[in-house]
Amino acid sequence: MIAVRNLFKTFWQPHRVDALVDVSLSIAAGEVVVVIGPSGSGKSTLLRCLNRLETADAGHVFIDGVDVLDPKTDINRVRAEVGMVFQSFNLFPHKKVLDNITLAQRVVRRRSKAEALRKAEALLAKVGMPEKAASYPDQLSGGQQQRVAIARALAMDPKVMLFDEPTSALDPEMIGEVLEVMKALAREGMTMVCVTHEMGFAREVADRVVFMDGGAIVETGTPEHFFVNPEHGRTKLFLSQILK
Amino acid sequence: MRTPSAPPVSRRPRSDYIGAAGFFAVLFGLAAALYAATMQVDYVWRWNRIPQYFAYQQRTELRAEADGEIEAVAARGDRRLITVKSDAGVHLFDAPAEGVRVAPGESVYAGDLLAVEEHWRPGLLMQGLWLTIQVSLIATLFGVVIGLFAGIARVAKNPFFRWSALTYVELIRGSPLLVQIFIWYFVLGTLFNSILAKNGLNQIPPLWYGVAAMATFAGAYVAEIVRAGIQSIHRGQNEAARSLGMSYPQAMIHVILPQAIRRILPPLAGEFVSLIKDSSLLGIIAIRELTKATREIVTVSLQAFEMWFICALLYLILTFSLSLCVKYLERRMVV
Ligand SMILES: Nc1ncnc2c1ncn2[C@@H]1O[C@H](COP(=O)(O)OP(=O)(O)OP(=O)(O)O)[C@@H](O)[C@H]1O
Ligand SMILES: [Mg+2]
Question: Would you tell me how many other CB atoms lie within 10 Å of the CB of residue B28?
Fold first, then answer.
């Protein structure tokens, strides 16, 4: 489904940072991969390279066999198949919840108004807030906004969903509602790559956990492997800090 | 004993009244001083002469062309059709009912007054005001279009667009509007019109060079306003739109610009207030807008003091009503 081959990415501004150093990773269809690692370890950069929000310097990314980094690839078509959920939600504040979910269906998928609406309403019900269709994003709580953002991404019928710390900006009491939606999605067989520090979530639904540090993948394995006997010292240190 | 529950009286602090009184005293004092000064130089204020420059009544007289007889005065709504029969034939005159000076059966001689018609005509001041409004509106319209494209080009990835827009903006903002008007009229205008003349085509009147100068001038400032507006929208908005598969133009049109417009509107209004005022420079290339019209009236009437005050007041009315319009729009756009 997703194949990352020897990916490199260096930022030069404001000073040199090697954000990705020779990263390779394969993700099968239906797999749920959780990416963990300390701040600045390149987790977001990796995720953003998958849909070319960030352009890698060297290496390859294949999604469903399509070479994402090839300049001849129609990146908008790739992105339509790859949903992304951001830490800061990034809902469109000038549009109502329902219109947030229908917009890309209309302009990218060219669906009819009725079809887009039907889809949007079904997804709003799925994320548990059908009554908020006519609200504006800033009238919702953080947890509700993030669920709308997930619905917005799902409306494109993506093959893959990328989550970049979807619960980090939320108050603790709202984290659960977002994780529930993500778990349901995982159970339905969605291919997911999640950057998150929610270890409960990782333990429950992840097929694989990837630990990154300093722009490289240090260790990867099943959740059991990670939480029972991680190999690397850095992994142990990180886990002991985060599980405290 | 007094009841303790007297209704609370909201009292303005004394200093408010003193301040307000002071304000009006100074205002009145200045007006009085001005009046006194004009008395010193024997200036005669003649406000009664001013209205004619807003509108005046034009009188047209209908006169018989040959000796003859009034055959009929037929009613047509509130107008009358006068039929004059003479050796030269039958002539018809159309006049308002209240202006008819003859009756059927009367005989008339050549040159006799048949009817008068009085029309209200806009005075020079009104014509100038109207031209100022027109020029400002058209220049605004083109200015917004130019500015929108140039502003979007300013934030484009492609260096061709980015550098072209930057060059345009810096060129325009780096020289006085007056000079730009001269260039448009005396350089570009001469070139265009000579080429047109060579090819047997009609000349473009100065008005359009003036409008072009104003529009390109406003466009550069609008471009900067648009650029700032676009850049004020959080990067995450663009990323969210693009991650859904929208193209750059789609993200611009559906996500970025609608949000940017709200931030663009207030400074844009300020820009167009300036544009209205700057249009007063167009007089120098023989466009008779409000300021030029005022100057012409001053030359004829010699009522310089009244005219210049009126002129300033008219600009004030224009700019103030524009500000009100924009305030209204802004309030409607807040969700
Ligand atoms: N646009 C950018 N310009 C410059 N440097 C960047 C940029 N984006 C990321 N970096 C740098 O690259 C490194 C990796 O960043 P990244 O955001 O991928 O880390 P992360 O693992 O997601 O961290 P966090 O947990 O804090 O989100 C960091 O040192 C960061 O400062
Ligand atoms: Mg991150």
Answer: 10
In the numeric block, which tokens belong to residue B140?
């605004």
Does B243 contact chain A (CB < 8 Å)?
yes
| Contact in structure between A82 and A130 (CB atoms under 8 Å) | no
Domains B57-122 and B124-333 share a fold: no
Name the CATH architecture for the domain at B57-122.
Answer: Beta Barrel (2.40)
Q: Count Cα atoms within 13 angstroms, Cβ side, for B233.
A: 30
3-class DSSP assignment, residue A22: strand
Question: For chain A, what percent of residues have pLDDT higher than 90?
Answer: 89
Residues of chain B with pLDDT under 50: 1, 335
Q: Choose, out of B235, B243, B253, the residue to mutate when testing the contact with A (most A CBs < 10 Å).
A: B243
B268: nearest Cα among B198, B221, B236: B221
Domain residue ranges of chain B, discontinuous segments joined by +: 57-122, 124-333
Sheet with B89-96: list strands edge to edge.
B89-96, B79-86, B68-76, B107-108
| Residues bordering ligand 2, an ion, CB closer than 5 Å | A 44
SS3 B101: coil
Which CATH number does the domain B124-333 belong to among 3.40.1190.10, 3.90.640.10, 1.10.3720.10, 1.10.10.10? 1.10.3720.10
Which residue is associated with the tokens 């993500």? A182
Give A101-151 pLDDT, tens digit per residue. 999 999 999 999 999 999 999 999 999 999 999 999 999 999 999 999 999
Reduced to 3 states (helix: H, G, I; strand: E, B; else coil), residue A41 is: coil
The pLDDT value given to residue B249: 94
Assigned token pair, B279: 């249009």
Q: Provide the CA B322 distance to its chain's centre, in angstroms.
A: 10
Identity at A18, one-letter amino acid code: D
B335 to chain A: which residues are within 8 Å by CB?
A: 94, 136
Q: Whose CA is nearest to atom 19 of ligand 1?
A: A40
Helix (H) or strand (E) holding B47: none
- Residue B142 carries which side chain, given as an amino acid letter? F
C-alpha B109/C-alpha B100 separation (Å) is 16
Tell how far the Cα of A41 is from the centroid of ligand 1, in angstroms.
Answer: 7
Tens digit of pLDDT for each residue in B79-117? 888 888 888 788 888 888 888 888 888 888 888 888 888
The structure tokens listed for B167 are 């060059």
